[in-house]
Structure formats: structure tokens, C-alpha cells
Amino acid sequence: MKTNEHFIKAYDEFSDAIFRHCFFKLSDRELAKDVLQDVFMRTWEYMSQKGEIKNIKAFLYQVANNLIIDQYRKRKYNLSLEEMKETGFDVPSKEKRDAYFSAEVRNIMEIIKKLDPIYKDVLFFRYVDDLSPKDIAEILNESESVISVRLNRGIKKIQEFFE
Amino acid sequence: MDEILEKLNNEAQKISLNRDEKSSIRNILISYSRKSPYGAFFSFSLIRNKKVLILAFVIALLLMGGGTSYAAQRALPGDILYPIKINVNEKIADLMAVTKEAKVKLNKKIIKTRLGEMDKLISIGKFDKKKEVKIEKDLKNALEKSEKRNNVSRENNKEIKPRKF
Predict the structure, then answer these.
(1) Which of A47, A65, A93 corresponds to the end of one domain?
(2) Is B16 part of the contact surface with chain A (CB cutoff 8 Å)?
(3) Which of residues 63-92 of A touch B (CB under 8 A)?
(4) Residue ranges making up the domain that contains A145
(5) What is the per-residue pLDDT across A60-73, written as a single tens digit (0 to 9) for each?
(6) Which sign, positive or negative, has the C-alpha torsion B162, B36, A28, A104?
(7) What is the CATH number of the domain that holds A17?
(8) What three-state secondary structure class fits A159?
(9) B-contacting residues of A 88-147, CB under 8 Å?
């Protein structure tokens, strides 16, 4: 199979998953689509120079996370919503993530958001992205056992919120 | 606890691209992968007849004024101002990009703009064969320029390394 056929096959297989990941992290459907497109463009640039990627799924999540971090950084330097309203700037309407979920799920997401990043990230990968501990280990460059420990501890931390 | 996490998992899995979104991005990526083999996006070259181009752009700017040029930035293939966007604005931007890095960045931006225009035309239902040919031609021009710049760019090109997070 040619490199670009591999590339398009990867898009067909993982685009929804990467989009979901971006959407959850960015809470903006349109922005998530832009980032998704950028993830695959950058992946293609890498593939066209370096050839096939051994674990393209992990690679896509890594690129997606890097681009999401870039988006967070950009937001930091942007005007706040209030400032934009005051100055009359037309704020584009965003399709909010929360509108898609039940109250119960919104509540658990809020709790996960408050956890330490080492637990928050693995719980997010496991329950939102539906990734196995093995996949998560590859994305985070950690061992599978470390990921399993973090998952268990993360779940215990969530339980503490309910007690 | 397992139940609520399972519920989170189930609800999350319902989030996906719709069919149009998926196929629109897919088309853009197919076009991108066909047009940018082997790092063409990171390449640059020198404009041979730079003096002639500068002169032409200065005259064009004087004739048209900045307002037209600004309005042309949002033009799509088929619009009256689209040729100004391609032949004036983008060429001026190319001349203004002095450093190698700036030229590489601009080149990438122009190609992305072409792909974005195609996406926009598809989304508003105005994408036809004539416009496809026009965008294909403009993309080809941009990529040929990139190809000529290829050798120098590879030395400067940074490898994309995923950051650890």
C-alpha cells in the first residue's frame, strides 16, 4: 500500500476518535474540526518525509495534544469574552460541549477536570477516548502498569468526591 | 462508580463528525497528500524576475488602492476580486517575506488558503468543475514554486517531533 493510501486509511479509521478528543478538550466543534484537519496535515508531512509511522494511532493523539496545547496558549493571549463584549467585538457562537451530555455525565466530567493532570489525562483517554491502557501507555510514553496504577488511583480520587 | 464511568464512555462515543464534515475534510486531505509529496510545503526558492514583479505590484497598488486589495482577501474563485487576491495580494506578501522562514510560512499559508477556499465552496454548494480546475491550477503553481525551493528547505526543515506531555 502506498504512503498516501495508508494516510487516508488512517483518516477513515481514526478521524472520529481524534475529532472527539479535540472536541472534548476544546469545547468548540468548529475549532475541533480545524485542529483535526491540522493533525492529519502534519501527520502527512511527517509520513511523506519519514515514511510509515509504526503506531499511527498513538502518533495522531500526540500531534492532537500538541496542537491543543497550542490552542490553549493562543487563548491565553486572546481577549477575554467580557472584554470582547465590552469593545463590541462580535463573538462567534460556539457549540458547547456540555449540551451533548446528561447532568450525571457533566458532573463526572467536572470532577475529572479537577483532578491532578496525571490522573485526569489517563481517565480522559480511558473513558472519553475509549483507549486501552496499552494505547494510553504508548501515547504518554509510559509503561502499561504505570497507566493501570494511575487509572485505579484516579477512580479512587473520583470516589472521594462522592463520599 | 463503574456505572457512571461507563455512562460517560457511552455518551462520549456518540460524539463524531457528521457525514458531510467527514467527507469534506477527507477531500481536503486527499488533495493535500497528492499535491504535497515529500516535504514540498517546507520549501522555498528565489523569484527570478523580482524587480519586474515589484514594479508591477507597485503600479497595481497605485491603480487599485488599498481598499480593493483588502476586500479581495475574502474573495473566492469566481468572484471579481479573486484575481487580485491571487495575482496581487499574494505576490506582494511573497515579496514582503524577506527571510527563508517567512517564505516557507507564507507558502504553506497560501496552499492552505487554496484548500480552505475549496472547502468553503463545497460547503456553500458553489463548487463546480470550472472552479475545481482553477483551484487545481493555482495549487499546482504554488506547489511548483515549492518544488524549486526544495533543496535548501530540507536543510532548514525542522522535523515534527511530538512533544511529551
Answers:
(1) A93
(2) yes
(3) 63, 65-66, 69
(4) 101-163
(5) 999 999 999 888 88
(6) negative
(7) 1.10.1740
(8) helix
(9) 100-102, 104-105, 108-109, 121, 127-130, 140-141
Q: In angstroms, rounded to a whole number, what is the distance separating the alpha carbons of residues A33 and A25?
A: 12
How far apart, in Å, are the Cα atoms of B146 and each of A8, A154, B61, B152?
23, 49, 26, 11
Choosing from A49, A76, A93, the residue where a domain stops is A93
Q: Give the length of chain B.
A: 165
Nearest chain A Cα distance for residue B34, angstroms: 8
Which residue of B118, B156, B165 to mutate against A (max A Cβ within 10 Å)? B165
> Which residues are CB-neighbours of B19 under 8 A, at least 6 positions away?
none
Quote the number of domains for chain A.
2
**Contact of B5 with A108, CB cutoff 8 Å:** yes
- Domain match, A86 and A106 both: no
Does A130 sit within 8 Å of B9, measured CB to CB? yes
DSSP track, A61-84: HHHHHHHHHHHHHHHHHSPPHHHH
What average pLDDT does this structure show over A72-92? 53
Please write the tens of the pLDDT for every residue from A124-148. Answer: 999 999 999 999 999 999 999 999 9
